[in-house]
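In keeping with the milestone schedule agreed at the kick-off meeting, the structural modelling team has produced records for the first pair of proteins. Each record is given below as a sequence line and a structure-token line. The laboratory manager (R.T.) confirmed that both were archived under the project's standard naming scheme.
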Amino acid sequence: MTVLESSYVEHAPHLSLAVARAMQSTLAPPIKYKDASLEAYGRTIPREAVGGDLVDLVTSDGDVIAYVSDVSGHGVSAGVLMGMVKTAVRYGLMFGQGLPQLLEGINRVLPSVKEPNMYATFAGMRFDGASEMEYIVAGHLPLLHYRQTQKDIVRLSMEQFPVGLFPEADYLSGHVTCGPGDVFAMVTDGLVETADAWEEQFGLQRLESVLRDCAMRPLARIYDAALEAVSRHGKQLDDRSLMLVRVLG
């Protein structure tokens, strides 16, 4: 083995880690957004250097689309598929696709470019400045809707297949009325399924309590409160992601 080859072998693990971290920071950076009608904040914390969770926000023709996706598996293979999902979402939105049409297109394409057992869950919201928000859920946890006027939380769920499993699956979206002060939360299972020493999961109810107690705080503070609560509850064994969106007016 030459000196050059020996040096490469010695430093290869560090190079791989650096590439993985660069990949993660490029594909899933923190989200911070604000305009006259809404604000958003979201982050994903991978279990490894690169993960399969994705938080993203896209503006298209005056609309704001925020979404969360969770790719099955861990590590680089999940991160690669996560990158494919992000590219496909942004490409579809560039051509003005609606949320159901968007997922149907991604669902037809993914099976031919991934391992057979892999798939991606998806939860997304579209805001167009009106008093209604369009949402879609595909194999994902419910969206949480904190209603400022009622001071309560509603779970928005739909029974639909995740993308990438069945190419012929159809998708539907729903609509919900929202107003100033309302906060929406999208979360991945790596956060709510965090278990304590007695194998009790953190669950949606605890996240709802944090959201209800902190609803008037800045979104970054709500995020921090949620992550602090789940970190106290149990050890991280999966990617953790949380996206928050507040209606301003």
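The second protein of the pair:
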Amino acid sequence: MSLLTRKRAILAKIETTYGVDASPTGGANAILMSNLTVSPMEMTLVERANIKAYLGNNPSVLAAIYAKLAFDVEMAGSGTAGTVPAYGVLLRACGLSETILATAVTGTATAGSLTSITLAAPASSVDGAYNGMTIALTGGSASPATAVIASYVGATKVATFTTPLAVAADVTTVYSIGAQVVYQPISTSFESVTVTCVVDTVVHKLLGARGTVQVKMTAQGIPMFSFTLSGLYVDVADGTTPAVTLSAFKAPLAVNNRNTTGLVVAGFAGAVGSDMSFDFGNNVVFRSLVGGSETVIITDRKVSGSITAEATTVAAQNWWLNIKNVLLGPFSVTQGTVAGNKVKIDAPSVQLTTPAYADKDGITMLTTKADMIPVNGNDEITLCFL
């Protein structure tokens, strides 16, 4: 029986206990993906270097084995603000926390400044409840404006921004923290997923899977998250092609002037961009040591990427001096136009390096490497689904 290439499915579910099958199903845990690459047996072999009276290969001993998958998922929201996107489990498996605000928090500030706002009494009393979230200032002083909350103190209701406002907030400032789901990096207590990959009717399973993710945005293309996951190897078996439910995945919008807004590159709000890509840069390691257990762990993270935007005059934006002087600045971009299907990417401190000229449509472009630098820790990049 031939196996059809087009008949493939990925199912993923968060594990309660590391390495214990979470039993994902096609009805509840299917992933709409593309560009699937299956590496069913990543192997480390040790050759038995025996000396014999003839030439030829020696057999090898299997020293380590795990499985690996890579695939793309279209960047889009859930369709409802404050509802987790259907691929949220994959972001969690890549070393990101998930914070859900199901209902908007609104009010009038009791105090404010260029760098913070004191929310009204009904706001949460939990420290960090709104970390990473986007707050809109909709009335009074400082409006209209938006900001990203870097930290929040529940006892005082003070929300501190990642970057200062243009005009200080005060007791007249009306605010709204809309319903949203936020993903930020973590450095401990990493989650894992069970992944079932079905190639027609052949079942590959990865337990304790963790990985890394890239963001890819190219003008007039579909924005993508590219995932690479590694997991504990399970013997391959025959099975059945699962019936999958993919209705939770919403259609993406192409990257263009209408659908992609709010571009800020290292603090410059006049940037005209064509290509942006960011790799979360997780160092994912498979370990199988004596006296321990087989695990896939994340040991480091270095978020970096590249940005291509139209070159400017020095008077308009002195990229050269800023790069030479290691001037850090924020990055922001929003993909999507309708609540529930907007993805906002923010980084409070970006270092641009190695600028180079490029061409697009006969227009001179400037391509730079972009390193996202943590400010207070675990805050170098935020994905906000609004």
